[in-house]
Backbone:
């Protein structure tokens, strides 16, 4: 199969990476006071060494102004992170996730029930958003019918969480952070009610497991359980939503690849991995140095903010041949879309399963599925995520 060109119809300015080479592998942004890391090996080094590159950025904030989020997997380092992760690691093993296949198939068919052949529908609104939300909501034990609230809160959270700076405070940055905290408060307050209810009325769900779990003989506090559930709910659906939309865009823009997956559904997982490489749903991960260190050609001091641009790293020409091309026959499509090391996304097996099953069912139901040329996709506005908000398809 011959890979097709990169300048396809869905290359919009909203995508952070549009085919340009970054100006260097490790670049200092003096205005924001951060280091931007674009290289493959350099990003792997940052993500794979939590002792030097910590996830706890609260050390940069004066103690009296720190907003500590106990139980938040994304802002803790080993060994605390390892202990917290172990609490739910059994929920996301390949065997447990595989057992969800019948339910995921059932939900996919239900969500597509009203889509008529020969018509048009929005993939995100109809399937890519509700499917993973319902799955993670059912695992947690919160009402899936509240997914409209989740979408509103998470959407605003992503939209207002674009900027990070250790430089001069601006009214825009302050307003963004205030709005972010409001959305965190909305979702956290919602989850707190459910967590507190599990203490008096336990159920067979993940929230109850969090409430009853112990770390070193001590149970999680309500705040810890809420923050833990917060991360699972947000990360548990947003990645799959973008993964499914991005893969559909890639296939639609590459007719040879679309033809290949139609003829052999066993190639869908490869298409998903290449899509994750080319359009990583989360484009950047933040870390802070704990001591002076060398990174590429740069020397970093202690307490330096490092922005590991995984989307750029997965297009590093030193690592990938024709890195800006969607190539279903790529020999090694390894990517950093799910992170690396201690913080590797524990929900990756679930996201991959949801994406594979959804694509299989879509192609089964609609053999001529393609993007509606009269309705341009709308892209998420946040610079640290890469995906569509709307994607109209013809059936």
Residues:
């Amino acid at each position: 199969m011959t890979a097709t060109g990169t300048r396809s119809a869905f290359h919009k300015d909203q995508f952070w990476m549009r085919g340009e080479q970054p100006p260097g592998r490790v670049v200092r942004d003096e205005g924001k006071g951060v280091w931007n890391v674009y290289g493959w090996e350099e990003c792997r080094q940052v993500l794979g060494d939590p002792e030097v590159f910590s996830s706890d950025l609260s050390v940069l904030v004066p103690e009296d102004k720190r907003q500590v989020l106990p139980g938040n997997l994304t802002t803790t380092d080993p060994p605390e992170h390892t202990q917290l992760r172990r609490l739910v690691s059994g929920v996301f093993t390949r065997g447990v996730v595989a057992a969800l296949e019948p339910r995921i198939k059932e939900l996919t068919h239900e969500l597509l029930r009203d889509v008529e052949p020969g018509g048009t529908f929005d993939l995100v609104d109809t399937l890519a958003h509700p499917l993973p939300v319902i799955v993670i909501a059912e695992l947690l034990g919160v009402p899936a019918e509240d997914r409209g609230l989740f979408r509103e809160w998470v959407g605003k959270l992503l939209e207002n969480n674009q900027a990070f700076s250790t430089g001069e405070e601006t009214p825009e940055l302050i307003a963004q952070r205030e709005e972010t905290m409001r959305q965190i408060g909305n979702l956290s307050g919602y989850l707190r009610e459910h967590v507190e209810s599990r203490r008096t009325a336990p159920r067979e769900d993940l929230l109850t497991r969090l409430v009853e779990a112990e770390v070193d003989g001590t149970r999680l506090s309500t705040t810890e359980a809420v923050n833990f559930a917060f991360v699972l709910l947000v990360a548990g659906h947003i990645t799959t939503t973008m993964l499914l939309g991005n893969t559909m865009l890639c296939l639609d823009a590459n007719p040879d690849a679309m033809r290949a997956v139609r003829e052999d559904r066993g190639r869908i997982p490869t298409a998903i991995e290449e899509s994750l490489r080319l359009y990583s749903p989360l484009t950047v991960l933040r870390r802070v140095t704990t001591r002076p260190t060398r990174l590429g050609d740069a020397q970093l001091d202690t307490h330096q903010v490092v922005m590991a641009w995984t989307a750029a790293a997965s297009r590093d020409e030193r690592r990938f041949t024709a890195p800006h091309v969607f190539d279903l026959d790529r020999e090694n499509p390894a990517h950093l879309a799910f992170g690396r090391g201690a913080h590797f996304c524990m929900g990756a097996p679930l996201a991959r399963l949801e994406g594979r099953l959804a694509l299989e069912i879509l192609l089964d139901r609609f053999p001529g599925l393609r993007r509606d040329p009269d309705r341009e996709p709308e892209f998420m506005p946040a610079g640290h995520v890469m995906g569509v908000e709307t994607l109209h398809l013809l059936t």
Summary: The first helix runs from residue 40 to 48.
